[in-house]
């Protein structure tokens, strides 16, 4: 009888831990379940028709691995392993449709999953794949100042997107496998971006920079693209705060990165809208015709704030902005669809710069506001799930939704 009673109490405690005060499933769990319902296979999470190794899949799956860990729920781990990684990685540890010589930083992002999979399973395929992706970074072309090209086809260009795709994986590898000298390379690349892509007036960062100042979309004097793009700034913001997980506090550049992150936080909050408490697609033009409140950037910004507070690199004075942003995301972007799943609306599907034979992607204001808008984009889902996990794990973060 006592054994039955104890088991019943444990079951009740488990159920309570997986629900919020309104007896609704936790938002992180609801979002994870929505991902699995809408995407029977995890490789589908970037609207793909066949298995592909992609950065969006990596972002969503990283969030699901964190849900699995926080709530001791193996089905999310199994979903990532069985329906994404193991479907695009063969028995020898090679990636289907991956070409190192394309030198796409986007291909590196999913590598972050492999550290967890290797640790949990001991499967040597994952270690082989980790090294394959690290080898790409060893040979990745660089601008004169040392920063990685975004892709081989984007000659001498650094984009904010690529910092998130490559540097947290690089930092994780460096600290896991004893190559801590590589941390100097990582921090110097971020500081190179601060030197060349930051706008001193707003504190925001331009989407891209051509170190040779020759590509058609670049300013001939600075090499910079024309505008700030919300999600581009979000990629940089997440890159800094994630890289700081691996930089020792006594590292020569640690404090410089903290200041860079804090400065960018202040700039982001400056453009947080007073009424909606979220952000626009082109954040510094809130009243300009055609601009719209955009979910992916808003989710990235709020994630970055909460993580900075959680890790002690932002003071609690920033909690108000983070909580308001979290509330704003659910008020402006999140709703239940016809199947009862959570849907994230107002997501910019994608944006880039060039290449030379694509004059449409010119970095103009008109270009950014006219790119496709869709729901349930993984670039919003991943950061939002990870934000929800932090809020659920820390009563001080909870805004009382």
Structure description:
- It is a single chain.
- The protein is mostly helical and 401 residues long.
- The chain has helices spanning 2-17, 27-38, 55-70, 74-88, 111-121, 124-139, 160-176, 182-197, 230-243, 254-270, 295-310, 319-332, 365-370, 378-393; strands at residues 157-159, 208-210, 334-336, 342-344, 347-348, 373-374.
- The chain has 2 domains: 39-140, no CATH class; 142-397, Glycosyltransferase, CATH 1.50.10.10.
- Strands 1-2 form a two-stranded antiparallel ribbon.
- Helix 3 (55-70) runs antiparallel to helix 4.
- The longest helix has 17 residues, at 160-176.
- One of its GO terms (biological process) is carbohydrate metabolic process.
- GO terms for molecular function: hydrolase activity.
- Pfam families: Glyco_hydro_88.
- Keywords: Hydrolase.
